[in-house]
Design a protein that fits this description.
The protein is an alpha/beta fold and about 900 residues long. About 35% of the residues lie in helices and about 15% in strands. Among the domains are: about 25-80, no CATH class; about 245-315 and about 350-365, Aconitase, Domain 2 (3-Layer(aba) Sandwich); about 370-605, Aconitase, domain 3 (2-Layer Sandwich), CATH 3.30.499.10; about 660-675 and about 750-895, Aconitase, domain 4. Helix 2 packs antiparallel against helix 3 and helix 29 (about 785-790) crosses helix 30. The longest helix is centred in the first third of the chain and has 26 residues, at about 140-165. The chain is globular, with a radius of gyration of 26 Å. The two termini are about 25 Å apart.
Length: about 900
C-alpha cells in the first residue's frame, strides 16, 4: 500500500454515523499539487488510484503530479500506471488466460519456484456467457435444449474453469445460465466502492471484453483490454496507457415520444465516430445526461467500442445511487458509495462549463429519430423511414460504397427452398434476435418489446415460422420482470421465447439456419438480413451466409420479424394484416412512454436481484454435476479444447532489424479482429478442421473456434481464416472481385495462410502483414495477436490501429508499425512478391520512433518508406524486449 507522500490519507463520514478512510483528492489539492476541481471526473478517479498506489516504484510521485496537472490539449507522451481494483473475464477470453496462468505455474515450478507464486493479486471474476448458441428456438424447451447442448460441447472447458476456482484463491466463476458478463457486472459484481485494508476506494476494473465499458454507466472507470493485458493486471502489473484526451459530450433536451435508448445510442455512435474519439475518454455531462435513466446511460456506455472511445463515462449522482438500491445492494454498501463520492467532491453530473475538456460535442436529444444501423458497421445509422430505399440502393452499389454489388434486376426475385412451399428473396429477414448486452440490460426497451408483442398478438399478427427468432436476456432478472409484467407470453407467441442467457447472435452464436434456407442463399447468392438488438454487425459475424445485418431496438426487432423483410418503410407500409383483415401499421402497436413507465416497477424490485444473485449455482444441475481436478498445477491431458500454451517455452528473442521478410497478407481498410481472430464455426476442409479430424474429432463435434480458444493448435490454424477476409496478394477475378477467405500466395502458389506461414517458418523467413485504416477494430480478441505471433509474423504495417489490438500486438512481441503522412499500402503498389527490410531496431528502441521500411521488388528496384513505431510507452519497450508481456511478468514474479 502507498507510503502516503502527499499526506492525503484522511477519514470521511458516512451517513450512518460511522467513518471510513480514503485517499483524499481535496487534500491533494490542498497540498498545492494542482487545482483539480476542473479536471474531468473520469481523470480524477484514475488520479485517485495513482495517488493511493504511489509506492515510489511502479507508481511514483511524479506520476501523481503529472496526472493532477492534466491539461485538456497537451501533447500526450506520458504513461499512466493504473492499478485496477478487479478484473472481469468472459469465458472465450478467460479460458486461454487461465491456460496461460496454468502454464506460468508450470514454468515457475520448472525454475524451482513455488507455483503458488503465480496468483491473481486482485479479485478476478469469469462469467461464462459466450458458449451457448441458438440451436433450438421458438420452443418452450429452447432454453433447456440449448443449455444441454452447451454443456455437451463445453464440459472439458468447464472442468478446467472449476479447477481454476480451487487452484487460485482470488479466481471466481459465474456459471453458465446466469447472464451476460456486462449485465451481471452491472447488477451484481460492481459494488460501487471497495473497502480493503481499512481503506475505501472506487471500484475500477479492466475486462477482457470490449464492452466492459457498460460499467461506465454507474460511474465505474473501466474498459476492455486484451486477455494479455488483463493477465498482467491481475498479476500485479499496472495497466499502462497514455494520458488521454477527454471529449465532453453535452446532452441537451429530452427524447421525443416513441424514441428508444437504442435510437439514442446509434445516433451517439454515428456522431462520435465522426468526431474521431478513438483512444480517448468520453465523458457525458449536462442536463440531458442527468435526466437519463441509469439503464439508458449504461446502453450508451456499452457502445464505446463502436464509437471508438476507451470509455463512455457518466459520473455518479442520485440516479446511480437509486439504481444501486433497486438492484439489491445493501444499505451499508449504498451508504459507503454515496458518502465516499460526496467526500471526494465527485458526486453529480457536471453542468455545462464546469469542466475543462479536450473538446466538447453537443447533442440535442430532441433531434433523435427511430433508427437502425447497418448493413455492415454499427456507425452507419439509417433513419427508420429510409430502410427500404437504403437496402435497395446498396443492393447493387459497389462493395467499396458499402454495397453488395448485385444485379439490380435480381432484387425482387423469389427463390424456392424446396420445403414447405417456402420462397425467399433478397432483403428477407431470416434472423430476428433480441440479443447482446447493449439492450438486454435495459428494461425500457425490453418492456417496450413485450408491449409491442402483446399488441401485435391482440391484432392477430404472427411471425413466419422460418424466421429464426430468439430472446437471450442479459440476466435471469429480465425473465422475472417480463413474466411479472405479463409480457413474456406474448413475446413467446411471436417466437421470442427465452432461448439462452448469454451473448448469442451478436457474437456469432446464432446457430445454423435451416438447411434448405441456407442452400437457397448460397445457391442464389442472396443478400438476406438479420435484425438484432446487438452492438456488432461486421461481415460474417452474425452468420456466415447472412450478409445484411441491422442493429435495432428490441421492439423494432419484433416488428421486422413480423414484417419478414428489411427493405420496407415501416413508417408508411403495413407490418402485416390483422385477424380482422385490415392492415396493421407500426404506429398501431408501438407502445408509448407512459405504457412503458407503468411497467417499470417490475424491473426495479430489489428482492428479485437479491433472490437471483444470492446463490449462483441454485437451479444449475448441469454445472453442479461437473467433477473437476484439484491441485496447484493443472494436469494437462490430450484434450482438444485445453492445451498447454507455448508462450513461456522460448528464450527471449534477439531484438534487432528484420531483414528479408515476406508479406503473408495485404489487407484493406477496417480489417476487424473478427477477420483476424478465429471466431464462429469452421469447415472440415480448413486447417483447423483437418487438425481436429487428425485427432479423431468428428465433424459434428467441432464446436466453434470460440469454444476451442484454450487450444493454440486450433486457434493458430484459424487465424486470418475468416470466410470474408480479402488478401490483396491474390489476383482479382475476371469480374474484378476479390477471392474471399484465408488464402495467400507462397512462391506463387495459392494456399491457406496457415500453411504458407508454416512454410515461411520452416524456411527461416520472417513475415509481415500490411493493412489499411482501422486495423484491428472490434472485440478485444487476444487471439488476433496470439495467432499472429504463432504464425511467425514479426510486424504489422497499417495506416491506423484500434487501441486494444495495437496494445495486444506489442504484448505478444509483434511490432505494430504505422504509415506516416500520405503513405498507404495502396500507394506502395505491392503484390506480395517483394522482400522487405525493417531497419532502425538495432540498439536502444524508443517509443514512437521512426523505422525505415525498404522494399525490394522482383526487378531489383528498391524503395524506402519511413514508418512510425507504435510501441507507445517505455513499459511496452520492455514487453517487446522480453518477447511479450507474459514472459516479462513471469520474470518479475519469480524475481529473475
Amino acid at each position: 500500500m502507498s507510503h502516503n507522500p502527499f499526506d492525503t490519507r484522511k477519514s470521511f463520514n458516512l451517513a450512518n454515523g460511522s467513518s471510513g478512510v480514503m485517499y483524499s483528492l481535496p487534500a491533494l489539492q490542498a497540498a498545492g499539487v494542482a487545482d483539480i476541481t476542473r479536471l474531468p471526473v473520469s481523470i480524477r478517479i484514475v488520479l485517485e488510484s495513482v495517488l493511493r498506489n504511489c509506492d515510489g516504484k511502479k507508481v511514483t510521485e511524479q506520476h501523481v503530479r503529472e496526472l493532477a496537472n492534466w491539461k485538456p490539449n497537451a501533447p500526450r507522451s506520458e504513461e499512466i500506471p493504473f492499478v485496477v481494483a478487479r478484473i472481469v473475464l468472459q469465458d472465450f477470453t478467460g479460458v486461454p488466460l487461465l491456460a496461460d496462468l496454468a502454464a506460468m505455474r508450470d514454468a515457475a515450478a520448472k525454475l524451482g519456484k513455488d507455483p503458488k507464486v503465480i496468483e491473481p493479486l486482485v479479485p478476478v471474476n469469469l462469467v461464462v456467457d459466450h458458449s451457448v448458441q441458438i440451436d433450438s428456438y421458438n420452443s418452450p424447451d429452447a432454453l433447456k435444449t440449448n443449455m444441454a447442448l452447451e454443456f455437451e460441447r463445453n464440459t472439458e472447458r468447464y472442468r478446467f474453469m472449476k479447477w481454476g476456482m480451487q487452484a487460485f484463491d482470488t479466481f471466481k466463476v459465474v456459471p453458465p445460465g446466469i447472464g451476460i458478463v456486462h449485465q451481471v457486472n452491472l447488477e451484481y459484481l460492481a459494488r460501487g466502492v471497495i473497502q480493503k485494508d481499512g481503506v475505501t476506494y472506487p471500484d475500477t476494473l479492466v475486462g477482457t471484453d470490449s464492452h466492459t465499458t457498460m460499467i461506465n454507466g454507474i460511474g465505474v472507470v473501466g474498459w476492455g483490454v486484451g486477455g494479455i493485458e488483463a493477465e498482467a493486471g491481475m498479476l500485479g502489473q499496472p495497466v499502462y496507457f497514455l494520458t488521454p484526451d477527454v471529449v465532453g459530450v453535452n446532452l441537451k433536451g429530452k427524447l421525443r415520444e416513441g424514441v428508444t435508448a437504442t435510437d439514442l445510442v446509434l445516433t451517439v455512435t454515428e456522431l462520435l465516430r465522426r468526431h474521431k474519439v478513438v483512444g480517448k475518454f468520453v465523458e457525458f455531462f449536462g442536463e440531458g445526461a442527468a435526466a437519463l435513466s441509469l439503464p439508458d446511460r449504461a446502453t450508451i456506455a456499452n457502445m464505446a467500442p463502436e464509437y471508438g472511445a476507451t470509455m463512455g463515462f457518466f459520473p455518479v449522482d442520485e440516479v446511480t445511487v437509486q439504481f444501486m438500491k433497486n438492484t439489491g445492494r445493501t444499505a451499508a454498501e449504498v451508504d459507503a458509495f454515496e458518502s465516499y463520492f460526496k467526500a471526494q467532491n465527485l458526486f453529480g453530473i457536471p453542468a455545462a462549463g464546469s469542466i475543462d475538456y479536450s473538446s466538447v460535442v453537443e447533442l440535442d436529444l430532441d433531434s433523435i429519430v427511430p433508427s437502425l444501423s447497418g448493413p455492415k458497421r454499427p456507425q452507419d445509422r439509417i433513419a427508420l423511414p429510409d430502410m427500404r430505399d437504403t437496402f435497395n440502393s446498396l443492393f447493387s452499389k459497389p462493395v467499396a460504397e458499402n454495397g453488395f454489388n448485385q444485379p439490380a434486376e435480381n432484387l425482387g426475385k423469389r427463390y424456392a427452398t424446396g420445403r414447405d412451399g417456402l420462397e425467399i428473396g433478397n432483403g428477407d429477414v431470416l434472423i430476428a434476435a433480441i440479443t447482446s448486452c447493449t439492450n438486454t440490460s435495459n428494461p425500457g426497451v425490453l418492456l417496450a418489446a413485450g408491449l409491442l408483442a402483446k399488441k401485435a398478438v391482440a391484432k392477430g399478427l404472427t411471425v413466419a415460422p422460418h424466421i429464426k427468432t430468439s430472446l437471450a436476456p442479459g440476466s435471469r432478472v429480465v425473465t422475472e420482470y417480463l413474466t411479472n409484467a405479463g409480457l413474456l407470453e406474448p413475446l413467446a407467441k411471436l417466437g421470442f421465447s427465452v432461448a439462452a442467457y448469454g451473448c448469442t447472435t451478436c457474437i456469432g452464436n446464432a446457430g445454423p439456419l435451416r438447411e434448405d434456407i441456407d442452400k437457397a442463399i448460397t445457391d442464389n447468392n442472396l443478400i438476406c438480413a438479420a435484425v438484432l438488438s446487438g452492438n456488432r454487425n461486421f461481415e460474417a459475424r452474425i452468420h456466415p451466409n447472412i450478409k445484411a445485418n441491422f442493429l435495432a431496438s428490441p421492439p423494432l426487432v419484433v416488428a421486422y420479424a413480423i414484417a419478414g423483410k428489411s427493405n420496407i418503410d415501416l413508417s408508411t407500409e403495413p407490418l402485416g394484416t390483422g385477424s380482422d383483415g385490415q392492415p396493421v401499421y407500426l404506429k398501431d402497436i408501438w407502445p408509448n412512454s407512459h405504457e412503458v413507465a407503468t411497467m417499470m416497477k417490475y424491473a426495479t424490485d430489489p428482492a428479485i436481484f437479491q433472490k437471483l444473485y444470492t446463490d449462483l449455482t441454485r437451479d444449475l444441475p448441469l454445472w453442479n454435476a461437473i467433477e473437476a481436478p484439484t491441485g496447484n498445477q493443472y494436469q494437462w491431458d490430450d484434450s482438444t479444447y485445453i492445451a498447454c500454451p507455448p508462450f513461456f517455452e522460448a528464450a527471449a528473442p534477439k531484438i534487432g532489424d528484420i531483414c528479408g521478410a515476406k508479406a503473408l497478407a495485404l489487407l484493406g481498410d477496417s480489417v476487424t479482429t473478427d477477420h483476424i481472430s478465429p471466431a464462429g464455426s469452421f469447415k472440415p476442409t480448413t486447417p483447423a478442421g483437418q487438425y481436429l479430424q487428425g485427432r479423431g474429432v468428428a465433424v459434428k463435434d467441432f464446436n466453434s473456434y470460440g469454444a476451442r480458444r484454450g487450444n493454440h493448435e486450433v486457434m493458430m490454424r484459424g487465424t486470418f481464416a475468416n470466410v470474408r477476409i480479402k488478401n490483396l496478394m491474390l489476383p482479382a477475378k475476371d469480374d474484378g472481385s476479390r477471392v474471399e477467405g484465408g488464402y495467400t500466395l507462397y512462391n506463387g502458389e495459392q494456399m491457406s495462410i496457415y500453411d504458407a506461414a508454416m512454410k515461411h517458418i520452416a524456411d527461416g523467413t520472417p513475415t509481415v502483414i500490411f493493412a489499411g485504416e482501422e486495423y484491428g477494430t472490434g472485440s478485444s480478441r487476444d487471439w488476433a495477436a496470439k495467432g499472429t505471433q504463432l504464425l511467425g509474423v514479426k510486424a504489422v504495417i497499417a495506416k491506423s490501429y484500434e487501441r486494444i489490438h495495437r496494445s495486444n500486438l506489442v504484448g505478444m512481441g509483434v511490432l505494430p508499425l504505422q504509415f506516416k503522412g500520405s503513405d498507404t499500402l495502396a500507394a506502395l503498389n505491392l503484390n506480395g512478391s517483394e522482400r522487405f527490410d525493417l531497419t532502425g531496431l538495432n540498439g536502444e528502441i524508443k517509443p514512437q520512433q521512426d523505422i525505415t521500411l525498404t522494399i525490394t521488388r522482383q526487378d531489383g528496384s528498391q524503395q524506402s518508406v519511413t514508418l512510425l513505431l507504435r510501441i507507445d510507452t517505455p513499459i511496452e519497450v520492455d514487453y517487446y524486449k522480453n518477447g511479450g508481456i507474459l514472459p516479462f511478468v513471469l520474470k518479475d514474479l519469480i524475481g529473475q
